[in-house]
Write a structure and sequence with these properties.
The protein is of the alpha/beta class. The protein has a single domain, classed as Purple Acid Phosphatase, chain A, domain 2 (4-Layer Sandwich). It has 7 helices and 14 strands. It has a 7-stranded mixed beta sheet, covered by helices on one side. Helix 1 crosses helix 7.
Length: 270
């Protein structure tokens, strides 16, 4: 019989909702995630997306948006030196620091070390969190509640050394792993409905928005009108494209944005 991890995911989100600091965000925010910045070698998932992301960041900086990087900014399962990664992508972080008045970095499962890293806090931003919330929106990476396999990160590190990353890249994953990613999203969506919140995550590399209209939560017979679960996707697709969430905070409307390697922009509303 299959073991469901849904109860652990719901419990983790409930805890995150309780502990996350309340942040007053600007009216317009973009939320990117899962860059998996490496050392610009064969195992670096981000390098083919670098120009695409910079193009998007310039567009939104010129419009006065705030920025949230929602976990797995760094690929620390393979590269242990965050300083070397920051050094290699110094121009990216310099652009962000010089053009975004406020930006926030959320820790993910691949880079949770940044919460306790003086270098990261000094060079990047002191606005580093596990999760944040704004009004009735919980913004968290989305990995909490998963059952971690012992030594998994060392296995991934070994695969990265062999530069065989494509197999474990969610853009070309075998059917079973794609199914796992979709199931995890479904679990997050279900928890979002039962907790009566709006939820924005990354982690799964599976871009989507699910909105509930006039849904009754049977647990307490309350009405959920227009609540949503949104997933950023990632900024490390193998084809050089990226996806992220554009959030109208004032009206609480998320939009899913996809930018191709040839800089074509596709937008879908939640």
């Amino acid at each position: 019989m299959a073991i469901s991890i849904y109860p652990f995911i719901k419990r983790a989100l409930k805890k995150a909702l309780k502990n996350a600091p309340e942040i007053k965000l600007a009216d317009k925010v973009i939320i990117i995630s899962d860059l998996h910045l490496g050392l610009k070698n064969g195992a670096d998932q981000f390098k083919q997306c670098e120009a695409t992301l910079l193009h998007a960041l310039k567009i939104y900086a010129n419009k006065g948006y705030e920025l949230i990087i929602l976990g797995d900014t760094f690929e620390l399962w393979e590269q242990n030196s965050i300083y070397e990664i920051i050094k290699g992508y110094n121009h990216l972080f310099t652009y962000i620091k010089n053009n975004y008045l406020n930006y926030y970095i959320i820790a993910g499962n691949h880079d949770k070390k940044i919460l306790h890293c003086d270098i990261a806090n000094t060079i990047l931003t002191k606005n580093t969190y596990q999760s944040i919330k704004c009004k009735n929106i919980l913004i968290t990476h989305g990995h909490k509640g998963e059952i971690e396999i012992p030594f998994a990160r060392h296995f991934v590190k070994w695969l990265g050394f062999l530069q065989n990353k494509d197999y474990f890249n969610s853009r070309q994953l075998p059917r079973r792993a794609n199914s796992f990613s979709t199931k995890h999203c479904d679990n997050l969506w279900q928890a979002q409905q039962e907790l009566c919140i709006n939820l924005i995550c990354g982690h799964t590399h599976n871009p989507r928005i699910e909105r509930i209209i006039n849904h009754v939560n049977t647990a307490n017979n309350t009405l959920i009108d227009g609540s949503y679960y949104a997933n950023t996707g990632c900024c490390s697709f193998l084809d050089g494209s990226i996806s992220f969430i554009e959030l109208d905070v004032k009206n609480n409307i998320p939009s899913l944005i996809k930018v191709s390697k040839d800089l074509q922009i596709e937008q879908s509303y939640g």
